[in-house]
Amino acid sequence: MGKKITIYDLAKKLNVSPATVSRSLNDHPSISKKTKEKIIDAAKSLGYRTNKFAANLSQQKSNTIGVIVPRLNSNFMSTVLAGIEKVANDVGYNLIISQSLESAEKEVLNAKTLYDSGVDALMISLAYGTENFDHLTTFIDRKIPLLFFDRVFDLPNCPTILIDNEAAGYEATEHLINQGCTNILHIAGGLKRNVYCQRFKGYKRALEKYGITFKEDNLVEVDLDLSRVPEVITHIKESDPKIDGLFVANDTFAVHCIKELKKEGYNIPQDIKVMGFNNDPVSEVISPNLSTMDYPGYKMGVLAGQSIIGHLNGAINLQSANQITLRHTLIIRESTQK
Amino acid sequence: MGKKITIYDLAKKLNVSPATVSRSLNDHPSISKKTKEKIIDAAKSLGYRTNKFAANLSQQKSNTIGVIVPRLNSNFMSTVLAGIEKVANDVGYNLIISQSLESAEKEVLNAKTLYDSGVDALMISLAYGTENFDHLTTFIDRKIPLLFFDRVFDLPNCPTILIDNEAAGYEATEHLINQGCTNILHIAGGLKRNVYCQRFKGYKRALEKYGITFKEDNLVEVDLDLSRVPEVITHIKESDPKIDGLFVANDTFAVHCIKELKKEGYNIPQDIKVMGFNNDPVSEVISPNLSTMDYPGYKMGVLAGQSIIGHLNGAINLQSANQITLRHTLIIRESTQK
Predict the structure, then answer these.
(1) C-alpha distance from residue A187 to each of A179, A224, A235, B333 (Å)
(2) How high is the pLDDT of residue B58?
């Protein structure tokens, strides 16, 4: 790799002291406007890189928002990101995104990378395994706005945007019960995360409300990676009494369960009724079409973007808008018909 | 926002000159090891941010690789990214990703943001509209390794990783002809980009080889956004003589064409045989299952990651490995059966 341009190179080139260069790039009041301009021009033409210099010197802004998501191979996440991008681009902000791949360790590394790259704000949706939040306190301590979306955690002064997952889990389960299911298997993601834990709580509350006893065997916690579909199918085949309803915590996993169940000779919805979650486009590609819970990802992204940018521009004080809850909607299709 | 920690704050705190702080953080030889350590410790504990400081001071590395992709809501792209992540994580590199949303203008902004954030290398798959490459010359001039994948362009000393799209387009079309199709509609992405232009060339070459005259009407260039499906369906309904084969440049668009054609009463594959491209999981969700071209995205990501990291570690000279072509595979399923 070529050597990076340092303030020493700039100083030598312009015949000034390194301290003068450094002060100019930091917009120090001791340096004249003329000198600052000369140094900034030289820094630009030589390709000097610092995030502070990159954008608005006096405001020390990079006009960049960092986003950490669990996985990018998710229609829901890319829809949320599209909403954030829309709002950010309209006002000249750019996003840089990194994925934790559901690893708490990698999430720490992502936070460090985004911090070091000089982001003005951070939005995060947590990995399955994250239990410690030290990697985020650096942002809070430096008053860099931090917002949680979807998979959230309550930290002081950090707003959260999500849906009422408990209510949504309740309604999904209630719908299956209303369609005649009495032995419903729930496929959950990592239960440490609010979204999966709350959906599971909603599932349990619906069972209770309708006088159905919850059985530990009817909860399967997987990471929702498609490689885990076969073990779910085996679980269903071996269940006694037989499973007549399936509530899966996301659509992609639900769709692949339907596909495999059909291969095993199950008729959907006659033998097993299936509910997904998120209303991904794939829910309308599978036959029978999948009943699901609409989770307004794009709207979530837009609201998250508006909150952060409003705060950065001084129009909104994030501390006062502590939690935004979006509306979810039950979508009934063929996979849960009587 | 809180004020960022500057070298002046560090200098004041440690009772040394700002120049000493700056030199220490830049690992300047004029400063003693003991002083450097003291200053680095203070910089860490106070949260001083610069990308150079963030990582390996003496090597001026950030251990971060920047990636620009057209869109994140693509199974193919997230599979490529998974491959890059795998290799990068194994050796302690982290990715930061930004999406151009198919806009050349935004791609320029992305490149600037990633440059300013101090990435050690850049990997890019081009937007539909990119025609000018000035935004990438900064990287080349500073000898920051730059690699193109999938949607590539030939720039001096920048390796490219892709498949033989012309051959793949030829084989896809030849398969449709062998199955009896004589009036094949091709749905292409932006023809400025190699991948779509080459697939189209392959389509035309296959027609020619089998004595079928190419008709301008049988080429539809769309951005492959699902909002464009209805106009393709209208085009098919109004075509005379009727379309009996459809070769679509990606699976997602092909799958939604099948879904809508079925609604319009078409039998697939009896009335129209359909070929996709990429071998996304959704190609096995649609009924009938979609014939497609397997594009090894994960392998592409792994190779791209290995090339860049090998170069950064001095093990590979990227200039000597100018183009890597991966193998594609025709996947025959129900949607093109006779």
Answers:
(1) 19, 8, 11, 30
(2) 38
Q: How does residue A156 score in pLDDT terms, banded at 50, 70 and 90?
A: confident
Bridge partners of B330, per DSSP, are: B293
Buried b (16+ CB within 10 A) or exposed e, B232-244: bbebbeeeeeebb
Is B50 in contact with A50 (Cβ distance < 8 A)? yes
Please give the pLDDT value at position B55.
40
**Predicted pLDDT of residue A50:** 58
pLDDT band at A49 (very low <50, low <70, confident <90, very high): low
When pLDDT is cut at 50, 70 and 90, the band that residue B40 belongs to is: confident
Q: Give the span between the Cα atoms of B180 and B275, in whole angstroms.
A: 13
Residue B135 lies in a domain: yes
Residue B50's pLDDT band (cuts 50, 70, 90)? low
In degrees and rounded to multiples of 5, residue A282 shows phi and psi of -65, -20
pLDDT of residue B320: 63
Instruction: Determine the distance in angstroms separating the CA of A15 from the nearest CA of chain B, rounded to an integer.
Output: 16
Task: For residue B134, give its domain range.
Answer: 63-163+297-328
**Domain containing residue B150: CATH number:** 3.40.50.2300
The 3-state DSSP class for residue B96 equals strand
Per-range mean pLDDT, top range of A5-14, B19-28, B48-57: A5-14
Which of left, alpha, beta for A111 (phi over 0: left; psi -120 to 50: alpha)?
Answer: alpha
Considering the domain boundaries, does residue A56 fall inside one? no
Check whether B245 has a pLDDT greater than 80: yes
Q: What is the DSSP letter of A227?
A: G
What the block records as the tokens of B241 is 């003589």
- A139 min Cα distance to partner chain B (Å): 9
For residue B160, the cross-strand partners are B148, B323
Confidence of residue A3 (pLDDT cuts 50, 70, 90): low
Question: In this structure, how many other beta carbons lie within 10 angstroms of the beta carbon of residue B115?
Answer: 20
B-chain residue closest to A282, CA distance? B282
Number of folded domains that form chain A: 3
Q: Is the pLDDT of residue B30 over 80?
A: no
**Cα-based angle B68, B73, B78 (whole degrees, multiple of 5):** 65
Contacts of A128 by beta carbon, 8 Å cutoff, 6+ apart: A70, A102, A189, A190, A192, A193, A223
* Cβ atoms A103, A130 nearer than 8 A: no
Q: Which residues of B touch A1 (CB under 8 A)?
A: 120, 143-145, 312
CB contact under 8 A, B60 and A17: no
- B290 and B174 in one domain? yes
CA-to-CA distance for A99 and A110, rounded, in angstroms? 7
Q: Which residue of A has its CA nearest to B139?
A: A47
Q: Are residues A193 and A44 in the same domain?
A: no
ipTM reported for the complex, 2 dp: 0.80
B9-47 CB burial, b ≥16 within 10 A, e <16: bbbeebebebbbbbbbbbbeeebeeebbeebbebbeeee
- The kind and range of the H/E element at B198 are helix B194-209
pLDDT greater than 70 at residue B2:
no
Closest by CA position to B172, among listed B154, B149, B195, B193: B195
Q: Say if residue A207 is in the same domain as residue A187.
A: yes
- Both B277 and B170 in one domain: the answer is yes
For residue B3, what pLDDT is reported? 55
Check residue A10 and give its pLDDT. 84
Q: B9 to chain A, minimum CA–CA distance in Å?
A: 12
